[in-house]
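Consider the following input, taken from an annotated entry for histidine kinase (Sediminibacterium goheungense).
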Amino acid sequence: MKTPLLFQKAINIGIRPELDLIEQKKTRLLNFMVILGQLHSLAFIIVNIMEGHYWNVGLLSLNVTGGLLFLFINSYHFIQTARIILTILSTASLCLSSIMFQNGNEYYFITNLVVISLIFKRTSAIIWLSVLTITCFVFIRFTDTTPWMLEPLPHSRVFINMTSALILAFLGLIYYRFEQRFYEQQLQQSQVILEKKNSELEESNTTKEKLFSIIAHDLRSPIAQLRNILDMLNKQLLSQEDFYKLSEHISLNVKQLQGGLDNLLQWSNSQLQGIEAHPQKVDFKSTLAQVISLMQAEIENKSLGIHIESEGGPIWADPNHLQLVLRNLLSNAVKYSYKSGVIHIHHYTLNHEVIISIADEGDGMDTEMQKQLFSAANIISKRGTLNEKGTGLGLKLCKEFVDKNNGKIWVEAREPKGSIFFVSFPATI
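Applying the prediction step yields:
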């Protein structure tokens, strides 16, 4: 496990975040080729020591030193300088070894041409360095360099070096292709993420536009009614007796307005700061009792009955989030119930989950509305049975808060009429 990690670190020498993907790919490719060259030189240093070719050992040692120098300069992010130095040193080294030992090292110029064509940006640099490399290769192949030969090496070394040069060039191309495919995959993933972000942004903008429209029409209306009633009272156009008769209507308007504004503030906070859940053991019965107490006026206004079956255990959730979810679901059930109806609340445990269902006896909803109910791109604000208004944010908030507490929420049609909402939370251990 240590060797691949060390090799991976060596491949990434000189890589920094500000480099574009192409330059990162080129840098990795050159590091890969240099590391392979280093391993090749070290192997032949051992072979030449065993065969007594010490002059070749010295030149190969210089090759290793040059490769280490390249990696060192690369690590300080002088990438272009390191590439030029490496090209010049490798060309000089290959010329010297080919002339002095006639060992076939000129075939490594093929590898040099592959590397030059792949790593340099400027066309002029590619042309000049390629011309230099080809000139050196032609000079060595078609010139009698015997007078300059220092020490002949076995003829088999020519075949080995020629084969190694071709293999090294092939491996370089394969690695380059591997890097190409890797970055293509990254690009595709980035494109998918970008499209998802754009889609979410469009949905968010659509939600905000619809939300502002609802606020402009629905939340302003109760305030205008309250203001008119109070103006009439102040101008003595409305008697105290008539005002008392309207007080129940005023109270309901205020509570509806308060619920809408509370949902709006909760939604705005979730969009700006995100939702952070702090789950703990929560008793369902006491939490539900608090929610019913807060909504007692609305329940009594419609003469609704609340039928509760509580068979489940404690819930593992954020208590504030659970209360918000129950308040919104019960508020919806009240809103869409007819007078003298019954709301059924069932609390039970199933497969390490606590499930809560809240069912009303209203008109229900079709399948298409059920699908869109929790969608981020749609705000559905349907008036209640007594023309109650809402912002349409309640169920979206429920979805966000339930998700943050590792729960699930869904809706089903209730026979013979009405809707039934389900919420599941993890059960406590």
